[in-house]
Amino acid sequence: MTDPGLSPSTPPESAPDWGSFARAGEWRRALAAARLTPTPAALRGALEGIVNVQEAVRARSLGQARRALAGLQDDLEAAAGEGLTGEVALLRSLVRPGALGEALTALEATRRAPGGETEPEALTARLVPALEHPLTRAEALNAVGVLHALREEPEAARAAFGEALNTDPAHYRAMTNLGNLELEAGQPAQAEARYREVLRLNPDYDGAHHNLGVALRRQGKLHESVSAIRRGQRLGMKRSREESREDLREQFGHRAPPPALRWVLIAVGVLVLFLLLRGGLG
């Protein structure tokens, strides 16, 4: 998301080789370059799959990341069948699909574990496959930072979030967490600047809108605060609906959920809306 790619007006003859961006880990730029040149569809699809994996991991949407990885592998097989062996070998060496699958499994396991890890060392050990893969390392570091923050170890948390951003400057949740540390340290102006940078990367991230509202309120900017928090609430409800559909997709595949479950989900959605409206600005 920090990687805007190339301008669509750039003439094809001046477009750089997508492979140079891929080797640098700049996947969005690699995809933009491939779209500006006569790149085979299967290779473009593979690059889109890598970008989709990266964005899903940033959003902690691991089910989406898993499906994007499956599509990526299909596109790599198709490209290999078309005789693009050199390009496929390059992408496979950079992405390492098997290792990426193991990295996603490690991230998924830490989310499923009842209660989660309480010791950073134990969590780090469980996240080794994710820490060792370039597409998941930032997310794993962010998870370690969150645990340090929960343990009230702000300096260790700050170091982990900072390392996550060094790995992936567009990991907007790690940047949000740095803003949260600044807010808790009584630095609302610095937190505000951090949240605004997050929203430059991802304008629809509800958590940054809400926290921006809190930072603004602590500076006495009440009108701006109300606007930001309300926007965060609207986006949060939208994200909750999307996550509910995502959970259903993972549990039932392409089959529709049972009618009784659909009614339960509707009731839960109504309850969430009621609580949000009643909670106001807190």
From TrEMBL:
InterPro entries: TMTC_O-mannosyl-trnsfr, TPR-like_helical_dom_sf, TPR_rpt. It comes from the Bacteria. Residues 1-20 are annotated as: Disordered. TPR repeats lie at residues 138-171, 172-205. Keywords: Membrane, TPR repeat, Transmembrane, Transmembrane helix. SUPFAM superfamilies: TPR-like. The chain crosses the membrane at residues 260-277. PANTHER family: PROTEIN O-MANNOSYL-TRANSFERASE TMTC1, PTHR44809. This is Tetratricopeptide repeat protein. The lineage of its organism: Bacteria, Thermotogati, Deinococcota, Deinococci, Deinococcales.
